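Chain entry —
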Amino acid sequence: MGITGIRDSLITPDIDGIIASITYLGDNFGWRHVSLGTDFLGIPKTPEGFADVNAIEKLKDMIGSHSEDVLFNNALRVIRANL
């Protein structure tokens, strides 16, 4: 499941909403199934506190031990398995 930067898809339209969405999915469906897709291109307004890719470092700190998987490994695994 890819978490996007589309404000209407988040629990709250800010970086905390991104974290809450990631945490909910990871805790309920397994961290192996969660990844981040920013959608910076094509969205009219980004979530508060997540204006550009520089905020990924903050997300990394907030996600903690699952950050490598959510921010990179999970998506790479799916891409490799399907391309």
Remarks:
- The chain has a mean pLDDT of 92.
